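Entry 14. Ran structure prediction on the chain below.
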Amino acid sequence: MDRERVMAEIAAHREEKTWEFTIEYRMHHKNGAYIWVLSRGIAVRNDDGIAIRIAGSQTDITEGKVPTH
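Output, structure tokens:
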């Protein structure tokens, strides 16, 4: 569910449909729980304009999210 949405947002950013990659999603923690993550970044492009990586950050925002069941 979240994985497909994240991959679609990354693809849109790589294709220059968005100026910045920004998304909130759940990540499965090794303890079995889910945490909420805010990912933000900007594509780094080569001289031909091709995205070669995304520079950015990931922040745990679980504490500020309302629990869902």
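Residues 2-64 form a domain with the Beta-Lactamase fold (CATH 3.30.450.20). Will compare against last week's run tomorrow.
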